[in-house]
C-alpha cells in the first residue's frame, strides 16, 4: 500500500512512461518492494492459518526488504554524488 501511495505522490509512473526512470530503477524501487510487501502479507495470512512455512516466509520477506533498502540507499548516494553542485 505504501508503494502505491509513493507512486501517486512522486508520479514515478509518468516519469517511467517519459523514459526518465530506467527499467532497473523501476524494478528496484517499485517492483521488488511490492513483491516483498505481498509476500509479507501472504505470510501473515499463513501465520493466522498456522502454516508451517509462514515463519520462514516472514524472515525471507524481511531480508528481501533489508537488501532492497540497502541497495536503494546506495543507489541514492551514488546519484547524489553525481549531481552537479549549484
Model description:
- There is one protein chain.
- The protein is mainly alpha-helical and 86 residues long.
- The protein has a domain of 60 residues.
- 81% of the residues lie in helices and 0% in strands.
- It has four helices and no strands.
- Helix 3 runs antiparallel to helix 4.
- The mean pLDDT is 84.
Structural class from helices and strands? mainly alpha
Strand content: under 5%
Number of helices: 4
Number of strands: 0
- Helix-strand sequence: HHHH
C-alpha-based Rg, rounded = 16 Å
Sheet with the most strands? Answer: none
**Average pLDDT reading:** 84
Query: Low-confidence parts, pLDDT < 50 over ≥5 residues?
Result: none
Morphology call: elongated
Could you tell me how far the N terminus lies from the C terminus, measured between alpha carbons in angstroms?
A: 36 Å
- Helix fraction by DSSP (H/I, runs of at least 4): over 70%
Amino acid at each position: 500500500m505504501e508503494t502505491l501511495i509513493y507512486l501517486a505522490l512522486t508520479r514515478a509512473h509518468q516519469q517511467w512512461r517519459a523514459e526518465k526512470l530506467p527499467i532497473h530503477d523501476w524494478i528496484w524501487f517499485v517492483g521488488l518492494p511490492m513483491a516483498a510487501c505481498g509476500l509479507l502479507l501472504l505470510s501473515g495470512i499463513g501465520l493466522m492459518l498456522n502454516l508451517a512455512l509462514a515463519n520462514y516466509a516472514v524472515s525471507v520477506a524481511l531480508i528481501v526488504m533489508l537488501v532492497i533498502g540497502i541497495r536503494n540507499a546506495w543507489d541514492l548516494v551514488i546519484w547524489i554524488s553525481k549531481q552537479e553542485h549549484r
